[in-house]
Amino acid sequence: MKFIALGLAAVMGLAGSAALHAQTYPSKPIRIIVAYPAGQGTDIATRYLADQISRDLGQPIIIDNRPGAGGNVGTEATAKAQPDGYTLTMGTNATHVLNEFLYTKIPFNAGNDFEPVVMVGTFPMVLAVASNSSLTTAKELVDSVKAAPRSADIALPSTSARLVVELLKERSAVSLFGVPYKGASIAITDLIGGQLTAIVDTPTSLRPHLQSGKLRALAVTSKQPSSLVPGVAAIAEQGYPDFDVIAWNALYAPKGTPPQIIHTLNAAFNKALQRPETRQRLLELGFEPAGGTSEWLQTFGKSERQKWQVVISAAGLKAD
Fold first, then answer.
1. What are phi and psi of 156, to 5 degrees?
2. Topology of domain 30-122+247-315, CATH
3. Which of the four, 88, 150, 160, 287, has the lowest number of CB atoms within 10 Å?
4. How crowded is residue 237: how many other Cβ atoms within 10 Å of its Cβ?
5. What is the DSSP letter of 40?
């Protein structure tokens, strides 16, 4: 009985310590792991939001870029971190949905190893070419390959980009060769230099080059045109009516993070996402601001995994 009493006391002590920790959170800097290189869309938006939210929480938020394996490296680091609210990750539709079905082996379970915090933003992917290209639409790209059989080399800076190209290749039955890149900057340099036919990337990464006239957008991957890329038709409007790929960013914590901490983070992000100046800035960066509850994000993630498991399996897609 003595040992049982001591054991119960220890458990109660740990529970009490966790509760006290949650009540005083945050009491030190928070780290958000971004599983992509600095300068990509997810990184840029995360850094902007981190600056806003750190002021509300009264603690610095440090961005830790850990790219590799389509986002799996940084996401694994978060899954294995202490569930104390001081290590988070800005997840994407790739890290928390697509990779589960694209990779034969993955060192974490996206559905079970994380606590959803909040949806941050959504956006279509963009298919673009260098400004000196003769192509003006996705349909023209497909038709040009059909007319003169060749392999069109398309830069893939992300898993979402690869999915877009693989789906377009399957639907159009033309040879589109995806060229993997660890980041967008080198891919864009190669595209402008004439080494590639096109690129698929986020509005955030491509917008400066579209605005400067160095690149031209051929299509967006959402089912409808997007205000994030004005005047650009959707692939669905160019002969592939069921084509619809939307990317997103959402904040996650390691499994077991106390609910009170999840609530604190969710409230802080929702507060920031509701500010007009924050919403405007995210739109300028290429994101449709989101928000909502952690419970909604949990449900959304399950539906996304169900949807894309079917699509990826039917297309026979694999990352390795």
1. -125, 95
2. D-Maltodextrin-Binding Protein; domain 2 (3.40.190)
3. 150
4. 18
5. S
Residue type for 49, please?
L
pLDDT tens digits for range 298-312: 999 999 999 889 888
Would you state the structure tokens that stand for residue 92, as one six-digit string? 């994407």
How far apart, in whole angstroms, are the C-alpha atoms of residue 300 and residue 245? 15
Can you tell me whether residue 234 is helix, strand or coil? Answer: strand
Could you give the CA distance from residue 193 to residue 187 in angstroms, rounded to a whole number? 10
What are the DSSP E strand ranges found in the chain?
30-34, 61-65, 87-92, 114-124, 126-130, 152-156, 176-180, 198-201, 215-220, 246-254, 288-289
- Give the C-alpha separation, 92 to 90, whole Å: 7
Q: What is the pLDDT of residues 202-239, one digit of tens each?
A: 998 899 999 999 999 999 999 999 999 999 999 999 99
> If DSSP codes are grouped into helix, strand and coil, which group holds residue 252?
strand
Phi, psi at residue 187, to the nearest 5°?
-60, -45
Q: How many CA atoms lie within 13 A of 97 on its CB side?
A: 28
d(CA 234, CA 247): 14
Beta bridge partners of 61: 30
0.90 exceeded by pTM: no
Q: Which of 144, 174, 176, 145 is nearest to 161 (CA)?
A: 176
CA quadruple 99, 101, 105, 108: dihedral positive or negative?
positive
| Neighbouring C-beta atoms of residue 65, cutoff 10 Å | 17
Tell which residue, 106, 84, 99, 85, has the closest CA to residue 14.
84
Phi, psi of 219 (to 5 degrees): -170, 160
Looking up tokens 């993070």 gives 257
Q: Hey, what are 160's tokens?
A: 């979402």
Question: Within 213-249, where are the H helices?
Answer: none
